[in-house]
Amino acid sequence: MNKAYLLLVLLVAGFSTQATENWYNQAFLGGGTSIKGFGATDQEVRTVDVVFRHARLFHEKSEGWIKGRHEFWMEVPVAIIVHDSDSVDDNDFGIVGLNFLAAWIFPESAIGSPYLMIGGGPQYVLADIEGVGSDLCGNYQLGCGTRFLMMQKHEINLEVRYHHISNLGMADPNVPLNSVKFYLGATLPF
To answer: I need a labelling partner for 108 at 20 to 30 A (CA). Which of 81, 146, 166, 180 fits?
Structure first.
């Protein structure tokens, strides 16, 4: 399959969700680096990420220890390789995928609305990264962040995630990429 065609399909899928009263879109810019020696990771791959996110309010609770907003997020991440180990071909583009995440947004405080998130999904590794062993991979991730209200319903987001990619044992070798990713972005409600 043509890699550019796959990228186009994933980007269109990320924007094709019909907006309703409870939907909003967030676009994040950020980056990350795989950490050599973290787990079985033996490649250093630095990326600049663009993540398109659709979020849906799943449940809102105003009392008790689970007080806050519970949301479902669908993301289309595109990771562009900007620096890598010698084993990655310089002509390779990066990684695209589709993530399904659950988020728990705590009630707003003086510093903003902190949140936790966890999830994962399929990843397509366009780059030829030694040890990954397959173009089709999976990922899981968990992280935390804070939304800062800037203007009416517009927010700035700061987020950090642990991110793991591997081919799920479907091919050999199966060397994972374990990364820490930092995101800065904006919430744009519809």
So the answer is: 180
